[in-house]
């Protein structure tokens, strides 16, 4: 993919979260329907189903219910991804279940998101789940959050109800690190302020949800300062045409690399310069996140998978003792002193859990010091020691070099997602 495509494509990944029955399915259906992102036969099928069910309207929630049927058959779908596009942008929605026991799915869906939509039922206001989802979005460094106050049609579109919910949420959000929060009163069922401006809430002067999604600025969310290139693969074709070719493939996770730049290979510490940067469509002059490229270097130095190319004057942290915020994803509890496999960027190692510092009460954000058992959906601060030094930045500085997963070595299940402090 050439550089120009990267800029044309402008892709926004967002996640939707809310309590059960807050209207997530209807909202996603409404976004797809009003942005004309569904096929006519899909629409006809929904109209037919709505009639059969006796709904007096086209029930857009049915658009996302194909997955519900699979869930009922016992097929587990943790996070459903949907794709749609408008002339301005392409979108990927990570739709996560609303139940309390699905914190781990929210973490999965939100880990790559640029923006989170948190739905609130106008009749119920800010509830425990609202705070939980906002906290997870903040923990995962999602920079943009949209609080959609849904079902405004059921509270007669009253401004004071919206303002009260907004004030309640602002009081909670002041404890979070989310720099950009939007508040939008909507009715997903009737389409108010979703894609089209509502005529029934002329007291609201802000943007519609779709306008916000199309125009939110995400380019500056990536780290363009710290140059990080974890090596995923060493390419040696050894063919007649490319007899001596040796390239290093991977994805740029931070900073900007240009041909001619001096780089250092870690952990060896050897320095060299970039000879060329190759892509599927041919060479480019520079590479930046999130481009996947192949770099060739001017000197033959020993580099293998799991190593990292950086700028000599801007290096990541290197350590075996690492403090992480851990979200536990497995039925089996965390074993203090337990040994786990660890995967960080392209590196694989093993680690031992040295200490559980505290657990977080997700609803109050208070530290729980007296109960340090970490089970499914719990979030806590943990110290681990790895068998090999990791090359990392703090998660708040770089979401890619600052995140890792723990793996059960016997079952090969991913048991935890971690954010390096």
TrEMBL record:
Enzyme class at the top of the EC tree: transferase
Enzyme Commission numbers on file: 2.7.7.4
Gene3D superfamilies per UniProt: P-loop containing nucleotide triphosphate hydrolases, Translation factors
GO molecular function, one term: sulfate adenylyltransferase (ATP) activity
Stretches assigned to the Tr-type G domain: 9-222
A Pfam family the protein falls into: GTP_EFTU
Keywords per UniProt: ATP-binding, GTP-binding, Nucleotide-binding, Nucleotidyltransferase, Transferase
Cross-referenced InterPro entries: CysN_GTP-bd, CysN_II, CysN_NoDQ_III, G_TR_CS, GTP-eEF1A_C, P-loop_NTPase, Small_GTP-bd, SO4_adenylTrfase_lsu
Highest taxon of source: Bacteria
PANTHER family: TRANSLATION FACTOR
Protein name: sulfate adenylyltransferase
Record lineage: Bacteria, Pseudomonadati, Bacteroidota, Cytophagia, Cytophagales
Gene this protein is translated from: cysN
């Amino acid at each position: 993919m050439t550089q120009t495509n990267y800029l044309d494509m402008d892709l926004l990944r967002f996640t939707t979260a809310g309590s059960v029955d807050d209207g997530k399915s209807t909202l996603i259906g409404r976004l797809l329907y009003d942005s004309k992102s569904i096929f006519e036969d899909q629409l006809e099928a929904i109209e037919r189903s709505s009639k059969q069910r006796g709904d007096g309207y086209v029930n857009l929630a049915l658009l996302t219910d194909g997955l519900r049927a699979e869930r009922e058959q016992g097929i587990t779908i943790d996070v459903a991804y949907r794709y749609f596009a408008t002339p301005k942008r392409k979108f990927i929605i990570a739709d996560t279940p609303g139940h309390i026991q699905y914190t781990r799915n929210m973490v999965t869906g939100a880990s790559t998101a640029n923006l989170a939509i948190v739905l609130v039922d106008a009749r119920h206001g800010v509830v425990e789940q609202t705070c939980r989802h906002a906290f997870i979005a903040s923990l995962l460094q999602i920079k943009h959050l949209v609080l959609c106050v849904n079902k405004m049609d059921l509270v007669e579109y009253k401004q004071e109800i919206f303002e009260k919910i907004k004030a309640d949420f602002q009081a909670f959000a002041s404890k979070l690190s989310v720099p950009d929060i939007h508040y939008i009163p909507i009715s997903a069922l009737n389409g108010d302020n979703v894609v089209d401006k509502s005529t029934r809430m002329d007291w609201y002067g802000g943007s519609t949800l779709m306008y916000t999604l199309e125009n939110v600025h995400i380019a500056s969310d990536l780290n363009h300062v710290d140059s990080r290139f974890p090596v995923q693969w060493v390419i040696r074709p050894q063919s007649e045409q490319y007899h001596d070719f040796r390239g290093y493939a991977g994805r740029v996770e931070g900073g900007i690399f240009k041909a001619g730049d001096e780089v250092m290979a870690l952990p060896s510490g050897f320095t060299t310069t970039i000879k060329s940067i190759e892509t599927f469509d041919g060479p480019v002059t520079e590479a930046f996140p999130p481009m996947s490229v192949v770099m060739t270097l001017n000197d033959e130095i020993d580099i293998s998978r799991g190593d990292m190319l950086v700028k000599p004057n801007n290096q990541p942290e290197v350590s075996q003792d690492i403090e992480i915020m851990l979200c536990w994803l497995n039925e089996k509890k965390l074993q203090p002193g337990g040994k786990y496999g660890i995967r960080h960027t392209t590196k694989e190692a093993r680690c031992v859990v040295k200490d559980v510092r505290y657990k977080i009460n997700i609803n109050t954000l208070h530290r729980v010091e007296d109960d340090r058992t970490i089970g499914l959906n719990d979030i806590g601060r943990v110290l681990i020691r790895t068998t090999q030094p990791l090359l990392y930045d703090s998660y708040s500085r770089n979401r890619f070099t600052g995140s890792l997963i723990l793996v059960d070595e016997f079952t090969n299940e991913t048991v935890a997602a971690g954010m390096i402090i």
